[in-house]
Specification:
Strand order of the largest sheet: 6-7-8-4-9-10
Largest sheet: 6 strands, mixed
CATH topology of one domain: Rossmann fold
Oligomer: single chain
CATH architecture of one domain: 3-Layer(aba) Sandwich
CATH class of one domain: Alpha Beta
Helix content: 40-55%
Number of helices: 19
Structural class: alpha/beta
Shape: globular
Radius of gyration: 27 Å
Strand content: 15-25%
Length: about 600
């Protein structure tokens, strides 16, 4: 580090609920040094202790061991994910309360740029208003070290852009927890990764995190050679889980590019929604929602100008725009919850929807996970397929052992993930997701992307998460606040590119007016060769044979008298076990590689 740290945590250990979160007998003690201009991304699954680490940095938590050192005069400000506004009548009253209360005019200056009225009563303030007020309060305190826990939650695109600009000019240090990949890539210069009680640091921004993560897992997989056979197998599959999902998603992304290309051919150059198939009859048979010239106004303000759209089975529609632009209004009209002022919306009678909105209620705290998912039983019906509840939990990145835990002990992100698991199990052919990425960690976002990609029905998504939209939707409906709705094949970046593109002359040829092409898809993996296909089919059985042989050999070697009575047989069986382990490890690695190729096709 070029300059001395402004804050250090050295040898930290913390026990919570009878278990060691950091340090203790199960983990290395935690060390962290933060320099005066650090831009750090704090990465880790929900529940590993990221927010707890923030509170340790802020001095709110007394640890069981270790020392917290801070440069004299350093001002630390924590931007909490869910600040407590209890006991304060207005947002400004709350903002001016605290040990390092900012000046009112400084709060007002930042609040004005964020578009938040600080005289608003705290009671009834929306999530977005509370988030803007919290940001104004934090930034007005002029921190030397800013700790931000999900700062972009509930913010619209304009506010996110403003915050990114402020942080880019900021002279102090910051550490940020965020699920917003675009935000992290643009701002961070180093990454600290909290994983299984250990804290790793790499002097690379979030853009290089995934490659680093895979390097760490690969190194651990090689180190697992020293473990016994059963433990090694468990560790191997566990460590491959994250990277395997990521590689599977690459295959799903290729499918998304193909769907976007198909959709691009149906959208006119002007971005209108006159979507056409080869025949009108074929198009109508695949349509599930048909909006014709719908409009909506409130008082004298036009929210939606005349707009038409045909949504087909399997479409993934993203709706994006600033707060107040009309995203939720448009969503409600398309789903039949709100009548348009003019025009019509026809919805297929067979359409059955599941709605997951940004105001989703917390799960009942005193219920167990088993009660939430399976009404207290062992089995859950997942869209017509019967699954064991513990196996289903694994699909949503939970340890199956939590099945009888109370919801109250789960972190906020874990509760959101549990709610997704419950909702996605319901039989439906329409998913409506309103800001689904709030409170989710990055690995859960990968999972959500995977579930959406595999969903057989139609999906409508309202989101400010730019990267998430780019990874999931085939068509973007972009609202600019004037009432106009742009229809673009692709995701958020495609909409942005269309907005920034100069208006072309009407004299250009029809070819030049065709819809912009989606980004080129990644190169499709080649088909497996005959030998590869044969290995893919036969290796699982061979691995089982080798496991059985290893287990049998170890049972024989467990005889304490064997070495003395027959040393030659002991040596022969030992060599056989070692050879079987070597062959099994190679077979596992070979099969995993082939499986990833198959899933990416």
């Amino acid at each position: 580090m070029a300059q001395p740290p402004i804050l250090s945590l050295e040898g930290m250990a913390l026990q919570q609920g009878g278990k060691w979160l950091f340090g203790g007998p199960d983990h290395d003690a935690l060390d962290l040094h933060i320099g005066p201009r650090d831009r750090l991304a704090l990465i880790g699954r929900n529940g590993v202790g990221k927010t707890t680490l923030f509170r340790m940095i802020d001095g709110q938590i007394e640890t069981d061991a270790g020392e917290r050192k801070i440069k004299p005069g350093t001002r630390i400000v924590l931007l909490e994910q869910d600040p407590d506004l209890t006991g304060h009548a207005t947002l400004m009253e709350w903002a001016l309360d605290g040990t390092h209360a900012p000046q009112e005019h400084e709060v007002e200056a930042i609040a004005g740029q964020l578009g938040i009225d600080m005289s608003r009563e705290t009671k009834g303030a929306s999530g977005g208003e509370k988030r803007r007020a919290a940001i104004a309060r934090a930034l007005a305190q002029d921190p030397d070290l800013l700790l931000m826990d999900e700062p972009t939650n509930h913010l619209d695109l304009g506010a996110i852009d403003w915050l990114e600009g402020w942080l880019d000019r900021y002279k102090g240090a910051f550490v940020v927890i965020s699920h917003d990949r675009t935000f992290l890539k643009r701002l961070t210069r180093a990454t600290i990764w909290l994983d299984r009680g250990s804290l790793r640091r790499k002097e690379v921004g979030f853009g290089g995190y995934e490659a680093w993560e895979e390097q760490v897992y690969a190194k651990e997989a090689r180190a697992a050679e020293k473990l016994d056979a059963k433990l090694k197998l468990e560790a191997h599959w566990l460590e491959r889980g994250v990277t395997a999902r990521r590689k599977r998603n690459q295959g799903r992304l290729e499918k998304l590019w193909q769907m976007r290309a198909q959709r691009a051919s149906m959208i006119s150059a002007g971005g209108t929604a006159k979507l056409k198939l080869a025949t009108e009859e074929d198009f109508k048979s695949k349509s599930v929602i048909v909006a014709e010239n719908i409009t909506k106004s409130y008082d004298d303000r036009t929210i939606i100008k005349p707009f038409s759209l045909r949504i087909q089975r399997g479409d993934r529609i993203g709706i994006v725009g600033a707060n107040g632009a009309g995203k939720t209004t448009l969503l409600k009209m398309l789903t039949g919850e709100l009548e348009p002022d003019s025009g019509t919306v026809e919805i297929a009678k067979t359409l059955t929807g599941v709605m997951i909105d940004q105001q989703r209620q917390l799960l009942t705290a005193d219920k167990t996970v088993r009660q939430v998912l399976a009404e207290g039983g062992d089995w859950i019906d997942v869209r017509g397929n019967r699954k064991h509840v513990q196996g289903y939990l694994k699909e949503f990145l939970f340890d199956p052992k939590i099945v009888d835990m109370k919801v109250a002990v789960l972190s906020g992100g874990e509760r959101s993930r549990l709610l997704l698991a419950r909702e996605f199990a319901k039989a439906s052919n329409l998913l409506v997701l309103d800001e689904p990425t709030n409170d989710l960690d990055l690995e859960t976002l990968d999972l959500l992307q995977e579930v959406i990609a595999d969903y057989e029905g139609t999906v409508l998504i309202v989101s400010h998460d730019r990267d998430f939209l780019d990874r999931t939707v085939t068509v973007t409906l972009g609202l600019d606040g004037t009432g106009r709705v742009d229809v673009v094949a692709g995701g958020y970046e495609d909409w942005q590119a269309k907005r920034q593109k100069p208006v072309e002359s009407k004299t250009k040829s029809d070819k030049s007016e065709s819809a912009p092409s989606p980004p080129p898809p990644p190169q499709k993996p080649t088909k497996l060769s005959y030998k590869d296909q044969r290995d893919f089919e036969q290796l699982p059985a061979r691995i089982e044979e080798l496991e059985a042989a290893i287990a049998k050999g170890e049972t024989i070697l467990s005889d304490p008298d064997l070495y003395t009575s027959d040393p030659q047989r002991f040596a022969t069986i030992s060599r056989g076990i070692e050879n079987a382990r070597t062959e099994k490890d190679a077979a596992e690695e070979r099969w995993l590689t082939l499986a990833e190729q198959v899933e990416a096709m």
